[in-house]
Amino acid sequence: MVASLARPGGNITGFSNMSLELTAKRLELLSELVPEAQVIALLVNPTSAYTPPMIRVTQEAARVRGLELPIVKASSEREIDTVFAALVQLHPGGLVVAADPFFYSRREQVAGLASRHAVPAIYDGREYADVGGLIGYGPSFAILADLDRQAGIYAGSILKGATPADLPVQQPTTFELVVNLKTAEALNLTVPPSILARATEVIE
Fold first, then answer.
1. Backbone phi, then psi, for 104, in 5-degree steps?
2. Cα separation of 85 and 127, whole Å?
3. Model-level pTM?
4. CA distance 79 to 103
5. Among 83, 149, 88, 91, which Cα is nearest to 110's?
6. What is the pLDDT of residues 130-168, one digit of tens each?
7. Buried/exposed code over 63-98 (b: 16+ C-beta within 10 A; e: otherwise)
8. From 3, 50, 95, 174, which residue has the greatest number of CB atoms within 10 Å?
9. Distances in Å between the alpha carbon of 57 and those of 24, 63, 98, 107, 203?
């Protein structure tokens, strides 16, 4: 959509929450947490426009790491329940939950089912870890809120005559890695020191 982040070059600019890039990174982190896993599933919302590119990026990251990546889909509360029941049959070593407003709105349900079915899962933010999720990695809520504020400033600048081509596409620059050790213990997992050393916060 743009020539570069620094100089978009066309009639569009904006803000990115880095959903695609960070989904691949979450797969890497989960693989580091459960190195014996050969199968890691990806949970996506099939109604989201971001899902097809997210699947492609994560499949490539899985291929590089030699992992099998079954795709499971849910877009309703009932389908979330069904997905976790089906995961038992797939025997995944872990689960990457895609960044999606629907999953975020149902984070207690998703994190609870992952724990109940003993599936190590990684999520797109600390809010999942706060409600019992194993590990969350992504921009902080404060950073995302600031991007929303900056988007308003950009809109004002454009309305005053600024050219979108000259306004850099903005991205988060700081991220939170939050690990819930209580959940790790319940799953009989030992969190590697390499992850603990990078953690922004450890919930004990």
1. -60, -40
2. 24
3. 0.86
4. 11
5. 83
6. 999 999 999 876 666 677 788 888 889 889 998 888 888
7. eebebebeebbbbeeeebeebbeebeeeebbbbbbb
8. 95
9. 7, 10, 12, 23, 30
Enclosing H/E stretch for 148: helix 141-159
CB 199 within 8 A of CB 179: yes
Q: Domain limits of the chain?
A: 19-141+171-203
CATH number belonging to the domain at 19-141+171-203, selected among 3.40.50.410, 3.40.50.2300, 3.50.50.60, 3.20.20.70? 3.40.50.2300
**CA–CA separation, 195 and 8 (whole Å):** 35
Phi, psi of 82 (to 5 degrees): -65, -40
Q: Is 40 helix (H, G, I), strand (E, B) or coil?
A: strand
Instruction: Find where tokens 């019992």 sit.
Output: 132
Exposed e or buried b per residue across 167-198, where buried means at least 16 C-beta atoms within 10 angstroms of its C-beta:
bebbebeebbbbbbbebbeebebebeeebeee
Question: Which are the contacts of 160, defined by CB distance < 8 A and separation ≥ 6?
Answer: none
Condensed to tens digits (0 to 9), the pLDDT of residues 95-144 reads 999 999 999 999 999 999 999 999 999 999 899 999 999 999 998 766 66
Contact between 122 and 26 (Cβ < 8 Å): yes
User: What is the rounded end-to-end Cα distance, in angstroms, of the chain?
Assistant: 43
Residue 2 CA, chain-centre distance (Å), reads 23
Cα–Cα distance, 127 to 135 (Å, whole number):
10
